[in-house]
Amino acid sequence: MAEHFVLNTGAKIPSVGLGSWQSDHSVVGDAVYAVTAGYRHIDCARMYKNEKEVGMTLKKLFEEGVVKREDLFITSKQW
């Protein structure tokens, strides 16, 4: 499997991301800490109803200097 895919902008999006589907609201924030292990792609969707928790955790990680927003791919879907 490819490690990443090259977008038309030249950016390289990781082919494997942390999915938040079926993640309980009380633990999805903890899962987002996977960025400390090297994840740079977080996958969300409005219908998962946990984007707020994902966003709050990412905001905290940005404020703590763990990772920069520009170093992450945060994807979502419209259904």
| Total number of distinct structural domains | 1
User: How much helical structure, as a percent, in the residues?
Assistant: 25-40%
Secondary-structure element pattern, one letter each = EEEHEHE
Structural class: alpha/beta
Terminus-to-terminus distance: 27 Å
Low-pLDDT residue intervals, each spanning 5 or more residues? none
Evaluate the radius of gyration.
13 Å
Q: Report the sheet with the most strands, covering strand number, pairing sense and barrel closure.
A: 3 strands, parallel
**How many β-strand runs?**
5
Number of helices: 2
Estimate the global geometry from the Cα principal axes: globular
Pfam family, one: Aldo_ket_red
Protein name: NADP-dependent oxidoreductase domain-containing protein
Domain NADP-dependent oxidoreductase: 23-77
GO molecular function: oxidoreductase activity
List its salient traits.
alpha/beta, two-stranded antiparallel ribbon, about 25% helix, 3-stranded parallel sheet, 2 helices, 5 strands, about 80 residues, globular
Structure characterization notes:
This is NADP-dependent oxidoreductase domain-containing protein. One of its GO terms (molecular function) is oxidoreductase activity. By secondary structure, this protein is of the alpha/beta class. The protein has one domain (4-75). It contains two helices and five strands. A three-stranded parallel β-sheet has the order 3-4-5, with no helix packed on it. Strands 1-2 form a two-stranded antiparallel ribbon. Strand 3 (18-19), helix 1 (25-32) and strand 4 (41-43) form a beta-alpha-beta unit. Helix 1 packs parallel to helix 2 (51-63). The relative contact order is 0.21.
